[in-house]
Each structure stands twice: as structure tokens, then as C-alpha cells.
Design a protein that fits this description.
Oligomer: single chain
Largest sheet: 3 strands, mixed
Number of domains: 2
Distance between the termini: 43 Å
Order of helices and strands: EEEHH
Number of helices: 2
Number of strands: 3
Strand content: 5-15%
Structural class: little secondary structure
Radius of gyration: 18 Å
Shape: globular
CATH topology of the largest domain: Collagenase (Catalytic Domain)
Strand order of the largest sheet: 1-3-2
Helix content: 10-25%
CATH architecture of the largest domain: 3-Layer(aba) Sandwich
Length: about 150
């Protein structure tokens, strides 16, 4: 967590902002004080994470490298963030945030956003889709791998 803000003042790294916006979308409105959100801090020094109510069934989204500095970071649905509170049970382990932060560092989905697509990482086997379950045994891990790896 940040200990100083962009002006050198002490901070917890958390900005709590009251807004009259009931739900944000993927239009980056949460990333600007002009549209009911909060402005980004310099992404060369800070990792910006906005936690808010997202609409349209979104759990989160991220900006890949090369986009505007003013919108650099990740946005996470408030009840899919962290490990405590009123969380959606399936998303209560903080993995949505981890997933989205991966995109900020230019990691693609393992299926390359297409059926048997490319994630541009040489050692990832071509995947048909994402892994949505946690295997409970070596046997189920092997079965899941056979089902999802494109041949």
C-alpha cells in the first residue's frame, strides 16, 4: 500500500469517494473525478485500483500497457474485491483483482480471447477457454487439462 500520495503527504493509499453514480461501466467513468470517480495517480509510481459498483455483470477490467496514463490501472466490482465483507462467494478469494492486475502487466487470457487463441507466452499450452474450477485431485486436474487444452 502507498504510504505517500503524489504530493508527498502521508496516506493509507485508499481514497474513499462519495458519489451519486449508482453503477459504473467500462467507460472509465470511475477513473475521473469529473465523472463521479477519482483521478488516477501516476502509474509509474502507483498501481491504481478502483473498487466500485460495476454494471453489466462485470467483475472487473483492466487497461493493458500503452493506454492513457489517466486511466491506467484496474477496476474491480466491490463485492468481488478482497476476502472479507459482503462478497460474492465464488469470487471471495481475491482472484479477480489478481487476474486484472495481470492484464496491467500485459498478460493475456490463457486462451488468447479466442477459442484456442494465443496468449503470446511461449510456454503456455494452447487453451480452449479459461479455468473456472479448482481441481481437487490429480485425477480431476488431468481430466480438466485434457478437456481444455486444444490439440
Amino acid at each position: 500500500m502507498a504510504t505517500t500520495d503524489p504530493n508527498g503527504n502521508p496516506t493509507t493509499g485508499i481514497n474513499r469517494v462519495q458519489t451519486n453514480i449508482t453503477s459504473f461501466g467500462q467507460n472509465d467513468g470511475v477513473k475521473s473525478s469529473l465523472t463521479g470517480g477519482v483521478d488516477a495517480w501516476d502509474p509509474n509510481t502507483y498501481l491504481n485500483i478502483w473498487v466500485c459498483n460495476l454494471g453489466a455483470g462485470l467483475l472487473g477490467y483492466a487497461q493493458f500497457p500503452g493506454g492513457p496514463i489517466s486511466t491506467n490501472g484496474v477496476v474491480i466490482l466491490f463485492n468481488a474485491f478482497g476476502r472479507t465483507g459482503n462478497l460474492i462467494s465464488f469470487y471471495s478469494m481475491g482472484r479477480t483483482t489478481t487476474h486484472e492486475i495481470g492484464h496491467v502487466f500485459n498478460l493475456r487470457h490463457i486462451w488468447g480471447d479466442a477459442n484456442c487463441g494465443n496468449d503470446f507466452v511461449a510456454d503456455t499450452p494452447v487453451q480452449q477457454d479459461g479455468n473456472l474450477d479448482v481441481p481437487h485431485s490429480r485425477q480431476s486436474l488431468a481430466l480438466m487439462a485434457r478437456m481444455e487444452i486444444c490439440l
